[in-house]
Amino acid sequence: MQLALVNNERSEAFPGGRGICPVCSSEVIAKCGPRVMHHWSHLRLRDCDPWWENETDWHREWKNLFPIECREVSHTADDGEIHRADIKTLTGIVIEVQHSSMTDAERISREQFYKNLVWVVDGSGFKKNFDIYHLLPKPDSELAADIVWVKAKRQLDGANRGMFFRVSEARKENPAASKENIRGGYYHFMDEIEDEVNRSYTGYHQFDWVRPRKTWLDASCPVYIDFGDDNLVKLETYDESGLKCIRFVHKRKFVHDAMVESQATDIATRFYPLPDVAT
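RE: above sequence
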């Protein structure tokens, strides 16, 4: 736990410190050893929040991207249940930064509890199993409206470089053809439309996740994966065909939007100049 109440003020751990847990009001003590990340620990309990996981440097780095008043904020449901959100912005968006694996049941319970929630998942443990492939045009573009992409998959070289069918061609044979029901046709390749795709590119790509952590693919709240780069990888569904895709979103954009938008689903949906960062 990064923050506790000391003299009724939220405070980070300091050598010899004692404080009060903001959730359960139990006594906590500071752990500040030379090889230990400074944190607060319950004196007599493991932790009062069963959803809490051991904090890593990665957790702390994410929390520190936000003002102190947004970190480790208690959230109370209508029935009185209380949990400590990793981050809750002043606009009401809850950000859970998740390092360890999670069951479907736990993910669902958190999504139902917080509702206005966005996940940030540590991707360092499965980065080698997550392949990102060719660019995709903006989903609502005129170009994308006529294309059904063949799903990219490791070892499928053609699909990984960009292979697709055209809806307009399929409708010559079947006027009822649509993105939802096209399963074959004349193959087209990326080199035919590469310039158009580049002009319409807004961060979308095909991907393949080998041995995926399926709970994140089934999440009802937005999921962003942090592979340690400047860009986060957001899991999305591309279009009516049901194609799973990713979208690159810069971390700075994510943090900015989480602080100004009121709904988690609105993060990275409006693209406008960000304020300059003081150096």
